[in-house]
Each structure stands twice: as C-alpha cells, then as structure tokens.
Amino acid sequence: MNQGVRRRTAGRVVAPLLTVAVVLGVWEAWVRLAGVPEFVLPAPSQVARTAVEVAPLLGPHVATTLTEAAAGLVVGTVAGLLLSILVTASRVTGDAVYPLVVLTQTVPVVVLAPLMILWAGFGLLPKIVLVALTVFFPVLVSAVGAMRAVDAEHADMVAGLGGTRLDQFLLVRLPASIPGALAGLRVAATYAVGAAVVAEYLAGQSGLGVFVQRSRKAYAVDQIFVGVVLIALLSGLFFALVAMLTRVATPWQRGKP
Amino acid sequence: MSVLAAHGLGVRFGDVVALDGVDLEVADGEFVAVVGPSGCGKSTLLRAFGGMLPPGAAVSGTLRLPTLPDGGRATAWMPQRDGLLPWRRAWSNALLGARIARVPRADAEARAADLFERFGLAGFERAWPHELSGGMRQRLALLRTCLAGRPVLLLDEPFGALDPITRRRMNEWLAGVGLTGGAPAVGQQRAVVLVTHDVDEALTLADRVVVLSARPGRVALDATAPTRDEILTALDPLPR
What pLDDT does B183 receive? Predict the structure, then answer.
C-alpha cells in the first residue's frame, strides 16, 4: 500500500467521523441554547445517558430482534436461491414462476403483517416470515440476473466436452449465481432488521420494535433514539457480516482491480 | 479408415446457407487445418463435427462422427475464447475437462501434473484465471480439452484472440508438443481438426490443409503439405 492509498483510507474514516461529530455538536448546542423540551428532541448527551440507564433492559429486546432478522435472512436467502434455480431451470418454469414473483412485490410486505399475525400468532414466526418475504426478492433477482448472464461461452465449453445440461447447471450456472446472490443479500441484509422491527410494531412482547413503541407511549423520546441507534447498529452489523461472507465465498474476486 | 467423415454436408440456418456439399474425411493420426475467410462456415463445420450445431440448423448430407466403445461422444471441442471459469483455480479448471468426460480423478490428476509441465504452466496450478496471461489462458484451455481424453480434438481458432507475436509463439510450441502421436501423454488424440483464418498457423501445425470458399462454404482445396501459394490461390481465386 503506498502513501497515497493510506492517506485516502484515513480520509474515508476520518472525514465521516468529523461530519458526525459536527452534526452532534450542532444538535447538542441547539437543544441547550434554544431550550428545546426533552419530549420533543433530547440532546445527544441525554440520549447517551439514557442508553446507559436502559442498557440492562435492552438485552432481551436485541436478542429477539436479532433472532428474527437472522432467521428471516437465512430462510429468505434459501427461498430466493431455490426460486432462482426454478426460474432459470427452463423457459417453462421461468414463465410460470417469475412474473408471479415479481407481481407479489407490488404488495408492500408490511401490508401483509396483520395477516401474518392472524395466521401465525404473536410469537417469532410471523416476524421471521415477514423478514424472509422482504429478503428473498433482492436475492432472487440478483441470482437470476447472474445465472442468465452466464456467458454462452461457458455453456458451450461444457457442451463441447460432452457435458449434459446437468453438468452445465452444476458446474457453470449454480456457481455463477453465488456472487449475484451475495450482492442481493447485501441489499437484503440492510432490510432485514428494519422488517423485523416493523413487524414488532404491530404485535409482540419483545424486540426493539416493542421497545420503541413502549417508549413512544411513555413520551420517552430519548429512549426512542436509543432504539433507533441500536437498529442502525444491528443493520450495519448484518451488512458487515454479509460483506465478510462475500469475501470468504468469492476468493477469486479478491485483489482484482 | 477415417475417424471422422462428412459427405455432401450442407448446413442451413433459415435462409442462410452456411455449408454446401462439403466432403471431408479425417484419417487416424492426422492433423487437419480448415482455412477460410471469416463467415465461410468453418466454425459451423467444426460444430457439426462436435455434435454441437444449434437447434435451428438444417443439416443435409451424411456425417459420420466418432464414438467411444461405450457409444459416447469421442470428440472434445475447444472454443475460440478460453471459457475458463473465473471461480476455479488453474488446476481445477483443467480438471473440468476430465470431470465432464467422466475420467477417473486419479488418472486425470496424474496426467494433469505431466501436462502442466509440458504446457509451461507448472507453478501456476493455484493461480486464478484472471492472473494468467492470454497465452497461458489459451494453453490452459487446451490442456483442459486434452484432459477430457477424447480421441478427436476440435480446435476453433484456439489462438485467434491472441496478439500476433504470442500467437506465433503458441503455434511453434503447439507444433512441438505433438498433439497427434509422438509424445504419448499428450498424443492420446488420434486426430486433430483445427479451424483458422491464419494461413501460417495452418502451415505450421497441420499435415493437411483444407480451404473453404466464402459463404456458402465449399471445399476449394484439400491438400497434404501444400505450399503457401497454393493455399492463397485457393482462398482468393481471382486473378491478380
């Protein structure tokens, strides 16, 4: 790594941190100087204090939301991959499935939440289903895109060596779908926590969504901010995990310009 | 006895006649080059030999393709572009040929180790395809095709995408490797058919040169060890 690159990397870390510090500073100063009431907008320092206070309460909520988001992400990814195989397997199955799948996306998933709760109760299951419903689509679309983009060159190569359609699928299309599916998963990962939280808004006994709703009813705006920050952190965590997974799963793309 | 034969072979794609009345026999142990201008149907001829014509092609005449004792296909076809899978290292890309042809893995690995040496790829077994030079990628693709262990190799402009200097070096190398006969590990092939638009490539590599006319492709010359002039005259019959 030469010095220019190092300076660039430092800039990428330092510059956004500086921006955040400035925004927080302005916020803090404005709240204090203008005397904004706490139930409208608490100062960052107040949010931080509250965070420390409520920290012991948060463990189970975070655990619930994390479980829902992670399980939903796994279920949704598997479903998206399986569907992408079905869509690309043949023209007939593609025509039979793909337009319908795209059509389902005209219904925002959140709208389905009351139905899910009616059918699956107030526990984890309806939330996992909702997260999975949110997640499978980006995975499906990117995986299908990657499989369809497989060069005729590669399929020809397999056929030229006497390979069957199954060989083409197992050796070329399936592995080609992995980077695509991972790109979709990266988008999906950022939705997963949000979808779980929205589902919790509607019903549930535990979870960050429940915590935020309870705080709202108590006019504890500082607690809402604590919830929001946590949700953002969890989303970031998921994103980072998927980025790591991508690195491990696609070693040939490392060090490529 | 020929290993591969076409008699009065015609191939049409809708209204386009790609090949018309082509007669060609390839004998055991032969290295045949098919030369012709772009679009003359030479790649179509090779695809016909490989049993790889697209579904829309209308074929007339007779075509005798080689088969293995078990009735399977006895040709291995190599496309112009290398077709290496970016997610497999060089070694694993090479073994793909053996895997698709259902060659036992232990046999294939032993042969691959030898061929990596001969093809000048030793030490690059763990390289990703994008880390290899154009010439190395083509050699690796050829190695993969050889590892399928098929008696007949069909090469469609294997070095067509390379720069002229690398291409010439590749040709000298390939002529020395002895794909047919000679070196036993490489020369499991009983015949090679090479398609090219490069006259010198054909002269360097092949025992026999077949010249196809411009579309629709017909055999304009079929000669063993022809001179350069003979080929050029057949390619461009108009008086100069």
Answer: 42
pLDDT reported for residue A103 = 85
Residue of B nearest to A155 (CA): B83
Which one is predicted more confidently, B19 or A231?
A: A231
B185 min Cα distance to partner chain A (Å): 19
Answer yes or no: pTM beyond 0.80: no
Preceding peptide of B151 cis, ω within 30°: no
Taking CA–CA distances from A152, the nearest residue in chain B reads B83
Contact A161 B100 (CB under 8 A): yes
CA dist., res. A226 & res. A220, Å (int): 10
Quote the mean pLDDT of chain A: 87
CA distance B199 to chain A (A): 25
CB contact under 8 A, A161 and B87: no
Say which amino acid occupies A177: S
Position B59 confidence tier, pLDDT thresholds 50, 70, 90 = confident
Q: How far is B104 from chain A (nearest CA, A)?
A: 15
* pLDDT tier for residue A62 given thresholds of 50, 70 and 90: very high
Report which of A159, A161, A155 is spatially closest to residue A173, judged by C-alpha positions: A155
Q: What is the mean predicted confidence (pLDDT) over A240-246?
A: 91
How far apart CA A200 and CA A204 sit, in angstroms, is: 5
Is the distance from CB of A103 to CB of A47 less than 8 angstroms?
A: no
- A154 contact residues in B (CB cutoff 8 A): 83, 85
**Cβ–Cβ contact B145 with A under 8 A:** yes
Strands, DSSP E only, in B43-123?
A: 57-64, 75-78
**Window B:199-228, CB contacts with A under 8 Å:** none
**In terms of DSSP bridges, do strands B57-64 and B2-13 run parallel, antiparallel, or are they unpaired?**
antiparallel
**In this prediction, does ipTM exceed 0.85?**
no
| CATH code, B2-235 | 3.40.50.300
CB contact under 8 A, A163 and B78: no
Is B101 in Cβ contact with A162 (below 8 Å)?
yes
Q: Which of B46, B93, B100, B132 to mutate to test the interface with A (most CBs of A within 10 A)?
A: B100
Q: Report the percentage of chain B scoring pLDDT > 90.
A: 10
Residue the block writes with tokens 């078990």: B70
Residues 6+ away with beta carbon under 8 Å from A257: none
To the nearest whole Å, the CA of B234 is away from the closest chain A CA by: 30
What radius of gyration, in Å, describes the C-alpha atoms of chain A?
Answer: 23
Q: Residue A84 above 60 pLDDT? A: yes
Q: Residue B182: which region, alpha, beta or left (left: phi > 0; alpha: psi -120 to 50)?
A: left
Q: Is the pLDDT of residue A147 over 70?
A: yes
Q: Which residue of B has its CA nearest to A256?
A: B130
Write the single-letter amino acid at A232: A
Q: What pLDDT, on the 0 to 100 scale, is given for residue B54?
A: 83
